[in-house]
């Protein structure tokens, strides 16, 4: 990350011209900045925050910059600018100190989710809808659970969810929330625009809990699946009837070709959304419970003779530990798509961890491959034990400048076969024959 100068931000936004404005919010105005190398960044000019001094601003930025996740907008830098200006007061010109804060983040070409929603259901293809829903849930889970101090968004809505060229969602607009008075009175236009995402306990009592964001999440999922406004038509009907209505939309959208797996995705998302918008915050799930529910969609349980196996999602750090950091001593094979390492699970089970090369396979291919492998269960087919998908952000030097880069690690884990491959056995037999 960088501490940008005011002069630099002023130059890349054409003096913060109206033509460069790409968004407005309660906390500030967002401008598009074009750097010398052609890369675009989003520059958010924050409204004045009384009582927030230089040190607090910088400390808070350092806290926010630690929030690095594939579904969170990446912060690139900041600027805290102080200037002395002449202002009129009681008929006289006096010198005043003006402080301005700026946050700089990655700029996403796909725009906000709001621009992709329609008043009717099924505006987007289902796989796109599910990618967005899953991504927003993962991003919110990270904000609540993945950083040292939980970050509550408090303004989660479609305009705060940005999309990249592949329709991957990233949550933005979550910075500096705690520095604003959460009991402030909204003007009429602001209430009309945002109150639908606010839970009842906040509207009536100004109570803020982690379930605030969960309620907002539920409204967003309903808008994605049933239409930006259409979902309210079914607000008073029983939940089961509502589920069937929305499910019917998607069956018709896919012309009756909906697969069993997709059917589970659709129904689960509707059920999650309805639980999230419960008027009682106690009845709403936590974001952790929501993630667990989504994970179950892709977990296929199957019975063997003696035990129940389950496909697991492993943390990359865990695979590093059980393979001794993917050491050469643990390597048991190599192929065109990756290297294979032996690892031992905590229960003593030996597994083969295939760490895929970073190039040659994209995210969609990886997901399809894992889903296909989970469906193949046979005594003469090597059993899939689990998989890993891990992303991290690093800063690297590129053309003389430090830029942010995403590093993706993918792995597929199989049962470990003690006897090796048939090729190994044949080679041994040939050598024995020759001797």
TrEMBL record:
GO terms for molecular function: ATP binding; protein kinase activity. Keywords: ATP-binding, Nucleotide-binding. The lineage of its organism: Eukaryota, Viridiplantae, Streptophyta, Embryophyta, Tracheophyta. This is Protein kinase domain-containing protein. SUPFAM superfamilies: Protein kinase-like (PK-like) (SSF56112). Residues 16-300, 326-435 form the Protein kinase domain. It holds the Pfam family Pkinase. ATP binds at residues 45, 355.
């Amino acid at each position: 990350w960088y501490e940008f100068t005011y002069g630099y931000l002023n130059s890349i936004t054409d003096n913060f011209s109206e033509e460069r404005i790409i968004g407005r919010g309660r906390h500030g105005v967002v401008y598009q900045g074009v750097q010398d190398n052609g890369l675009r960044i989003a520059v958010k000019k924050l409204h004045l925050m009384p009582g927030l001094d230089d040190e607090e601003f910088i400390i808070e930025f350092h806290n926010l910059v630690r929030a690095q996740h594939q579904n969170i907008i990446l912060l690139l830098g900041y600027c805290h600018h102080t200037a002395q200006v002449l202002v009129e007061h009681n008929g006289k010109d006096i010198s005043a100190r003006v402080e301005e804060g700026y946050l700089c983040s990655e700029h996403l070409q796909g725009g906000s989710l709001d621009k992709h929603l329609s008043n009717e259901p099924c505006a987007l293809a289902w796989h796109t809808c599910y990618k967005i829903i899953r991504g927003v849930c993962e991003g919110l889970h990270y904000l609540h659970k993945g950083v040292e101090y939980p970050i509550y968004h408090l303004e989660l809505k479609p305009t705060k969810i940005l999309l990249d060229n592949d329709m991957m969602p990233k949550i933005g607009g979550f910075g500096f929330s705690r520095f604003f008075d959460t009991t402030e009175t909204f003007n009429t236009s602001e209430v009309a625009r945002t109150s639908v995402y606010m839970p009842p306990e906040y509207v009536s009592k100004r109570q803020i809990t982690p379930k605030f964001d969960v309620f907002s999440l539920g409204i967003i999922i309903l808008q994605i699946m049933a239409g930006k406004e259409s979902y309210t038509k079914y607000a008073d009907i029983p939940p089961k009837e509502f589920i069937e209505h929305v499910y019917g939309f998607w069956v018709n959208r896919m012309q009756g070709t909906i697969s069993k797996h997709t059917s589970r995705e659709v129904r689960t998302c509707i059920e999650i959304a309805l639980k999230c918008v419960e008027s009682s915050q106690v009845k709403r799930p936590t974001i952790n419970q929501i993630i667990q529910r989504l994970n179950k969609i892709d977990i296929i349980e199957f019975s063997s003779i003696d035990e129940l196996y389950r496909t697991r999602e492993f943390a990359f750090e865990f695979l590093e530990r059980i393979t001794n950091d993917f050491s050469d001593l643990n390597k048991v094979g190599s192929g065109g798509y990756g290297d294979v390492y032996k690892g031992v699970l905590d229960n003593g089970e030996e597994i083969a961890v295939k760490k895929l090369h970073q190039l040659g396979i994209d995210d969609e291919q990886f997901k399809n491959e894992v889903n296909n492998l989970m469906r193949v269960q046979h005594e003469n087919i090597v059993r899939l034990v689990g998989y890993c998908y891990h992303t991290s952000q690093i800063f690297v030097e590129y053309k003389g400048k430090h830029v942010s880069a995403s590093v993706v690690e993918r792995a597929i884990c199989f049962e470990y076969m003690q006897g090796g491959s048939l090729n190994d056995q044949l080679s041994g037999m040939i050598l024995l024959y020759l001797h």
